[in-house]
Amino acid sequence: VIKESMSLLFLEEAVDFKGKDVKLIIVLAPVDRTKHLMDLSELSELLMDEKNKKIFLSGNLDAINLLIKEG
Fold it and tell me: Is the whole model's pTM more than 0.90, yes or no?
């Protein structure tokens, strides 16, 4: 990884992942062995809020980017 990044994959139809229906897959690409832990913590905090979770699940990239920037 040259530059830290995050990817979001939205699925029209949910897939089974260990008994749970999943429509959103998030991939973090850290530049070192620890930075992603802080990113994951911040992302988890965002997604604990039901309103924020709905924004992520909506697939609206502009709204998601704004939410992450405001984080």
Answer: no
The answer to whether 31 touches 4, Cβ cutoff 8 Å, is yes
Q: What is the pLDDT of residues 35-49, one digit of tens each?
A: 888 888 989 999 999
Half-sphere exposure of 58 (CA within 13 A, CB side): 14
Backbone phi, psi, residue 63, to 5°: -65, -40
Structure tokens belonging to residue 22? 């999943």
CA pseudo-torsion sign 10, 12, 16, 22: positive
C-beta of residue 47 within 8 angstroms of C-beta of residue 53: yes
Question: What tokens does 19 get?
Answer: 């008994």
